[in-house]
Records
---
Amino acid sequence: MFHDIPRAMIDRMRQLEQADAADRDDGTERMKRLRQIPPDTGKFIALLAAGAPEGKFIEIGTSAGYSTMWLALACRAAGRKLTTFELLDEKVALARETFSQAGVEDVVELVHGDAREHLAEISDVAFCFLDAEKEIYADCYEAVIPNLVPGGLLIADNAINHAPTLQPMIDRALADSRVDAMVVPIGKGELVCRKR
Ligand SMILES: C[S@@+](CC[C@H](N)C(=O)[O-])C[C@H]1O[C@@H](n2cnc3c(N)ncnc32)[C@H](O)[C@@H]1O
């Protein structure tokens, strides 16, 4: 996956990494910032996705499609497709640009809208990456966990840097007998839940 990333995808990744870094320093307002995962988290979720069981891949919170590109590498390696959800018009436009430039439109479907309106109907989920507003994590968790296949994974970003907001949901996952879960100290902290 990581040894033969297409040139066009590497170029788009670099472009978005630079834009994201600039956002964090130049006073860009929060909802306009890309708020991307760092590259190590991208590799981590791609590795886990590539080994996920049979079933659907979903992502909640696309932004400009940076994390989606990492997941697209896993889709290529494992012969899967991914559906990613994004609410904001401006981010959807950037993500469409990303998917076209990176050449991943054949493995990525972008849904423009509130993921919460769709999650309950998505059965047989093998892999879910959750990276949206922290206030909706608990609702997304409760919607996705029942629909995970055995061995299916839900990974939630920001489990460490947003711990004060996310702690009730993290505690719920750690005590939830439907899953085995732990927080992995990579990037901003990844809550990894595997359905039993
Ligand atoms: C932290 S950013 C995602 C970053 C992206 N995963 C990456 O690493 O490249 C969160 C994104 O979730 C989107 N979002 C927030 N609530 C959402 C919802 N209910 N449904 C779909 N997208 C949502 C926001 O508009 C924002 O673009």
Note: The pocket of S-adenosylmethionine is lined by residues 35-37, 60-61, 63, 66-67, 85-88, 91, 114-116, 131-133, 136 (CB under 6 Å).
---
Amino acid sequence: MPGTGLGIFPLLALMACLGCGCGKSQVDQALDSDANGFLCPDCKAKFYTDRKVFANHCPACNKGNIEMVVGFNCPADKHVTYSPRGRGFVACEQCGKVTSALSIPREAELKTWGAERKTAAEVGVE
Ligand SMILES: [Zn+2]
Ligand SMILES: [Zn+2]
């Protein structure tokens, strides 16, 4: 039966692919989270929302120039400094060395950082 032997190859290739996890890189996993953290530069409010919700304005002062927060990992003491992204790497708030890696904070880390959970309605998302 010609064809039978060939037909199994795509299946094996697919299984091998799933096995090695090539569909999702380590970088993607590091950047995956269950929440979005924000900082308001005006009133310094820290808050976070559900992963699906991208806040339109600050829940405390209603201003729209809020900034999304990411974690900056310090290579020296493993401390994570939470700060708005987009300005290069910040200095570690604990030891002052320049951080070298980014991570997306998860809900538990945002709570520890001092952020409060806000609903979509509170941050202007209908
Ligand atoms: Zn604010
Ligand atoms: Zn440090």
Note: The longest helix spans residues 4-20.
---
Amino acid sequence: MRLSFILFITISAGFSGTLANRRRSLVFRSETNTSYVELIPKKPLSLKAFTLCMRVATELSGEREFILFAYRTQDFDELNVWKELDGRLSFYLSGDGVFFQVPGLGPLQTHLCFTWDSSSGAAALFIDGRKSLTKIHRKGHTIREGGSVILGQDPDNYLGGFDINQSFVGEISDVNMWDYVLSDTAVRGRTAKMSGGNVLDWETVDFRGNGEVVQINVNL
Ligand SMILES: [Ca+2]
């Protein structure tokens, strides 16, 4: 990968807009309880299944939990993805979590995909295309629409209640979400791609930023 063009946008009050034809990436430079980016989905997140992918690099290590993705309605954490204090990766659906004892994230970019299907409860994750064991979680559950998708912070209430000790610090990109479970082969094929989600498509998704988040644009 060659970094041939970088555009820095640092706006303390907020930023918005789309930039196609380049790979966008978000850098959270420091621990804060203010910096986050809201992603505007293409359709309501009323979900009986999902595939959620992202590319992440972080130097956070040791006993430091951090949030990778938060989708919260007014009263519930509908879908929150975490790196736990003990290093496991997890996601929570309205309270209950499913945990994966997998190799930790680090300063080199890691491609993650989480999948879940309500009809069976099957939950799994992929790290750089390699699949975890499957666990059974929240069979019959439905993720509810009407919330906000947030990167960078864990909202304990709607778009607020952030905790600096749970904030994400590092770089995140290629956040794509589908309302169904991609095949194993499709997930492996997605590790090099950065777009195409039918709920969240990183190539076209609108951002609403707040605080100190830097958007860089990279030609691959
Ligand atoms: Ca919290």
Note: Helices lie at 184-190.
